[in-house]
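As described in the Methods, two query proteins were run sequentially through the folding procedure within a single session, without resetting any intermediate state between them. The first query and its resulting structure tokens are shown here.
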Amino acid sequence: MDPRSSAQDVHRCDLCESAIVHSYCDFCHVNLCKLCIADHISDGYDKHKIVPFQERRSTLIYPKCATHPHKNCDWQCKNCNDIFVCSSCTASEKHRGHIFVEVSEVYTTKKNAIADEANKLENLISPTYEEIALDLENQLANLHGGYGKLTTAMSKQGEQWHREIDIVINKMKTEISEIKVKHRDILQKHLDEIKQTQALIKQTLLAIEELKKSTEVSPTIEYSSKIREFSKLPPKVKITLPTFIPKPLDHEKLYNLFGQITPLSTATEENVFSLNQPNTSVRELLDEPELVATIQTGYEKVFSVTYLNEDCVWTSGSTKDIKCFNMKGELLHTASNKSEHWPNINDIAVDRDGNLLFSDATSRTVNKVNNGQTEELIRLQGWVPCSLCVTSNGDLLVIMFSDGETQFKVVRYSGSTEKQTIQFDDEGKPLYSRINVKYITENRNYNICVADSWAKAVVVVNQNGKLRWRYIGHPSVAKKKPFKPVGITTDSQSRVLTADFHNHCIHILDQDGQFLCCIDNCDLKYPYGLCVDNNDNLFVSEHFKGNVKKIKFLR
């Protein structure tokens, strides 16, 4: 009997094809028996990596250094757009003083992220698409029955009108058939789009599966996540069937009085599927908030702070440089505005792709920094942009004021296209005061919250721009100075947090504007910018100290 086929579950040597496998070459991906190892490495031991078979595919394959071809790149330089570098590069004059991270750590983090993406695609996104497809299939399956009821109703009415009404009946049945075809085409179109996306998800999962098996560093690290693309769910199609409305008999007005067919009504409901929002489980406020870390930004005055990822925040201050720090206080990146005038950067934000956004009062623009390159997103005429907020569905909210600061308004953009303007209440009165400073955020319930410093109020409207409530401070925290809200943010429980500049504390409100408590125990001095990360840690910029403090305030 052929030993290669005698036991299908036993791995054999790829060289001699008969002996049971003992080792594995992690560079060549070849099964080897003891006797064949020497033959395999005969062309140069340093070209191979022999490991026990049980530990196969455990050796990372590092890219070769472009400057030092005989060395592997074990590091990435954070100051040079994460390029791969070897140990010799790290000691070179070109990279003097730069921050390096181990490639193995980045690889492990990306591998875990890819595994997490596969889990989300398999267990969250793909099942959701299945549900949408099933709903469309059910609508298609029930289509005939629904339209059958319409034709039956018409037939009963036709029996009463006898022969002279038959012409009218046939004409209206033709209309129904045409509407039915249109109805079916609409549903089929949406179903085809869903199935096309499902096919893309399956292709992505296959590609991810290959990456999970692969030990090659470059393809793994260079993998671009598709989660955001697939997380934007298609609209849910709801089509209302036409109805037949019979009318009293009238031989002179057969067609008009026989009945009426309502037009096909197609409604879509936006499906929003967010994977990056923090945990929504109930989390209570700590009795005593805890100071976790303090980052010294180097600014004489620090303004805004915005969350980038698990370990990084962007900050802006009294220079044209926008700085990115990790939680150790190490400067990772710097983005510089081209304008030489100051103050020029009014606010910063991070979009859903992790790109930095900033508003420039001097040039009246909103800009995006992508891979170190600055590009203009929005340019205003007659208005000046100030505060920014990226919403849960990827829109951009911009607070802006008119020339002379006579008017303020909030404008919603999709890309560079204006979608909505919020400026007046139901009585036609301005929602916001005529003087800067103002900051903006979107709550998880889609309310738009503005801290209006001059008005000494937090102004909250719903997603349609209708005023919901105003908060003007609370007696329990009214110390020596009037309430002056500056930065504003929200947490996973839809609580609203705003910085009280003169009273050195943070007010915490529920989603309906009711005061809950304040944070005043972390030695805060002139708190200004606020943001919350995915774990509900609060970041507070201290205006005159130039610090950013990380505070834990939830259990």
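Immediately afterward, the second query was submitted; its sequence and tokens are:
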Amino acid sequence: QKLKYMLQGKQRVLAVCVALALGFLWIVLATSGNDDGKNDEVEGEDEEKQEDAETSSSNQKTTVPSYKSEFGTAKMKAFELFKRNPPEYEEAADWFSKAITIAEAHESLVPQRIALYNNRSACRERFGALELSLEDCAVVLAANKTHAKVRRRRARIFEKLGRHADALVEICADLLIQREDFKRSLQQGRTPEQPAPAENVEAVMRAVGKQRADEIIAERKRLGTKFKLPSPNTITQLLMTYVKYSERKSQAEAINVVDLENQVNSIEDDNVVLETLVQMVTVYTYTKRYQEAQAAVERALTLLQKIEASSSSHVSSKCLAEIWRYVGLFRHLTHELSESDEAYRRSLELETDSLLRAETRVKLAGVLVDSGEADKAEAELVQALKEDPESSDVYMHRAQLHVIRRDLQSAQADLEKCIKAAPDHVLARLRLATVLIHNQVDSMEIEEHMLACEKLAPDMSEVYQVKGEIALANNEIETAIQHFDKAIALDSTNPVPLYNKGMALIQLPDGGRDPQRTKDLFEAALKVDPTCMVALMRLSELKLQLAATFDQARDVVDMLDRATVHCRDNDELLELSTVRAMAIAQLEAAQNVGLTSFQM
């Protein structure tokens, strides 16, 4: 959950930010147009009128072949029915069919065949013969891959048929065609209209991403997939959100865990061993030895089951409550949410200390949030506040819930309450500084919190990480890079300043940009924390921008596929699946319109 709630607001827009990778989607959504096909005019009507005029003047000298006369009559009748008020699309399609039959039989009419198929396709779409309309579209595209109207029509029809992946390919193809037309117009000294995607582009992207994400979730359930522990940084960030973190860390560092291990191996009383194992879990957890802590939790749980089966338990309720609290924590970390929920509730049944009960409810609320039950999470936080009215943990985590709900004013209020209750809570001050930036609060107030953080934790990587983010928000790029460098030096396991530095390099003036160096930073962030999805998304965008061949673009898709194994959060999985869907659609569209390389 590494700063997860604070980052989610940024991650929500990643599907739209994939526009940066597309090259031709650089004006996405802001200028999108509504193309429902109602303005889709038939082709060739003006040419037909011109032909009639020419035929009329020449009839005095020559006799027009009967098939041309029949052909002209069929076309004119089709146009008339198409334009009639109300239009009679089905009959118009029949007359276009007659014209097509004549055109197919006479070589002199070859130039008009494609327009006829396009017109019949438009009629068929209007009266709901969607599959037949697609057949006509295929004929047109076989002759002209860059027929923009047909690409847009196919996108509409595919969406109506629920074939969202196919629709997305056509949307991308249409944008590619527009982009090429735009470039040619600029080269010719004309002022062209900017390319504009269909109004439904985001909805289609989401539909494709959701289908893929749902398939992955269903497969995980079928296979009983279990996750490994997240990165050490992720776990540490979660633990640091609790006010007791520093105190527990200091206590754990003062204990010789080897002595505890020796006691466990030498004591015969299982009840005493169990209590010692709980101490070991605490020491391992707060000295960042998370794998060993997890193993000790499983060992304690196995021993507890043995003791309970033997009916010889005299373990204190306090110890049992602590065991189940740790089971809840590590089940949450491995995304076994129902098991974590159950463990925390068992802890609540045993715990008598009001402060620990409040903390347990806050942790349970985190599980409920990840389960998509925000209202139930809020109810637990309300109950926690009743048990400990001065709990800074409640305010801290309720602020995170407000951020998820995009209620930054309430988040600010709760973070201020958290700091009032716990003035030395560095992470709360850092998060408040981030929220204040978004709430456009006076910079002096933000600076006061940052100075307090530097004084409280001068060697904390996250302090300089946030200082860099503030500088970056103020467009002080060089200063931001300096702060990110210090954050990286203080904690090489923190992926966020690596990612942020990469983002800062992107914003340097053209002469200072170094795509390869930016790429290296994103890759370094992922090496430190493979679950850092925001770095993965940006890396995929950058690699797509740099891809010159279709094989290089396919490598990006493969990278996104491999990354799904690290996605335990459903929202993150949806974003990743959406970015992957757009990359695949972009690749297929480029090939469909006849591009010979992937260079955008």
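The two ends are 36 Å apart (CA to CA). We note this only descriptively and draw no conclusion about the first query from it.
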